[in-house]
TrEMBL record:
Species: Stenotrophomonas chelatiphaga
Taxonomic path: Bacteria, Pseudomonadati, Pseudomonadota, Gammaproteobacteria, Lysobacterales
Pfam families: Amidohydro_1
UniProt keyword annotations, A-Z: Hydrolase, Metal-binding, Zinc
Family membership: Belongs to the metallo-dependent hydrolases superfamily. ATZ/TRZ family.
Name of protein: N-ethylammeline chlorohydrolase
Length: 447
């Protein structure tokens, strides 16, 4: 009996690209390749010439002048704060926070503000190639529902802070709501949950110990701002007799579930402690620059073996959710801080903003690289524009010359979210009109 010819395999989606940037293996670019997707999962990465022979696809997307890369992971966001974009600029952190942001939030924050701000952020992120966000804001239940509604991947933080807010009035209520959030979303394929104690200067020892105990029990990440400014460090020494990281270590929180954001004030010993314990550090270069908070030693962290991720921070302190801009700033700032032109090269920067972010969030088994078995969170970047010609080095071009407006297509778990620059299933004029009415409401509050 003779062998019968192999029948083509069925797949839902075949994306053909001039270049595939898988992130893993590191610094590799696959020319003229295709990625096959079935049931939201990557099932093959192969040369384009073989792809159509092997697969019969329900849909073929051909982008011969594009780079196909994993969706960017924005590893630190306060996305409802898109509605506060430009409210209080050109101010130092504590003045900005205590005299401007917190009073406005106290007047307007609620489920409607959070839902509308999150929706605006999702649209902006998708248009910029971001497919996953690490969220740190009040009303996590509302955020999670909005992310789920739009099929956007997120780790949603349950805020813990030492004073009453519109979200919770007491320590027990903050923790009860954190438990409810975790219970509701614990098995969701898109939405995860974390603890988000705000910062060492707004959370007491007892609450940090409670976070650590529950984080251990529930295997939840702990997402917090720390070592953001020199003042934070000096205040901690005065109040606790320790630097913030030493205090967190005393309380048992310096471990592989810690997502430490900003980290602009670090000693060599603290960098090595983070490497030894498996801490993830989120670098937010543009926010830190704008608030004059300091410089995260990204190169030293990376070279010590610390998992480095990249985030935009919130729109009230950045003022955008543009991860392409953030990557470029992270790479060039790292060189200046290290006084070394080889610091945080293009491939390492892309890794930080994809797989590094996924690892920080505990999502690295699902996303962050183009590998068989992972979710098809994918982004096509058109490199045919005049601004990215001539194309000598794809990785370099993606970091140093590409703007978010060159993102043409986005998929999350194989579902199209942006097609030829058009958002799928989102009412763009409605989102813009809604943002404008919030401007008027906030204007009245500030008058």
């Amino acid at each position: 009996m003779s062998d019968s010819p192999h029948l083509p395999e069925a797949c839902d989606l075949l994306i053909e690209a001039g270049y595939v940037v898988p992130i893993e293996p590191h610094a590799v670019v696959l020319e003229d390749h295709a990625v096959a997707v079935r049931n939201g999962e990557i099932i093959a990465i192969l040369p384009r010439s073989q792809a159509r022979e092997r697969f019969t696809a329900a849909q073929v997307v051909s982008r011969p002048e594009a780079a196909l890369m994993p969706g960017l992971v924005n590893a630190h966001t306060h996305n409802p704060m898109t509605l506060l974009r430009g409210v209080a600029d050109d101010l130092p952190l504590m003045t900005w926070l205590q005299q401007h942001i917190w009073p406005v939030e106290a007047a307007v924050i609620g489920p409607e503000f959070v839902a509308d701000g999150t929706t605006l952020a999702i649209a902006e992120m998708l248009r910029g190639g971001t497919t996953c966000a690490n969220e740190n804001y009040f009303f996590g239940d509302v955020q999670a529902a909005v992310y789920k509604k739009h099929g956007f991947r997120a780790l949603v933080g349950a805020v813990i802070i030492d004073f009453p807010t519109a979200w919770a009035k007491s320590d027990d209520e903050y923790f009860a709501k954190a438990g409810e959030l975790h219970d509701q979303w614990r098995n969701d394929p898109l939405i995860g949950t974390s603890f988000a104690p705000h910062a060492p200067y707004t959370v007491n020892d007892a609450n940090f110990e409670r976070v650590r105990m529950l984080s251990d029990q529930l295997d939840m990440q702990v997402h917090l701002h720390t070592h953001e400014t020199a003042q934070e460090v000096s205040d901690s020494i005065k109040l606790h007799g320790q630097r913030p990281l030493a205090r967190l270590d005393r309380l048992g929180l310096v471990n592989d579930r810690l997502i430490a954001v900003h980290m602009t004030q670090l000693t060599d010993a603290e960098i090595h402690l983070c490497a030894e314990r498996g801490v993830s550090v989120v670098h937010c270069p543009e926010s830190n620059l704008k608030l004059a908070s300091g410089f995260c030693p990204a190169c030293a962290l990376q070279r010590a073996g610390v998992n480095l991720a990249i985030g935009t921070d919130g729109c009230a302190s950045n003022n955008d959710l543009d991860m392409f801009s953030e990557n470029r700033t992270a790479a060039i700032l790292a060189k200046a801080v290290a006084n070394d032109a080889t610091a945080l090269d293009a491939a390492s920067t892309l890794r930080a903003s994809t797989l590094g972010g996924a690892r920080a969030l505990g999502f690295e088994q699902r996303i962050g690289s183009i590998e068989v078995g992972k979710q098809a969170d994918l982004v096509c970047v058109d490199l045919s524009a005049l601004e990215t010609q001539p194309l000598h080095n794809v990785l370099s071009q993606l970091v140093y010359a590409t703007g978010r407006q060159q993102v043409s297509d986005v998929w999350i778990a194989g579902q199209p979210k942006l097609v030829q620059r058009e958002l799928v299933g989102m009412d763009l004029p409605g989102i813009i009109a809604n943002a404008r009415q919030w401007r008027e409401r906030i204007r009245h509050v500030r008058a």
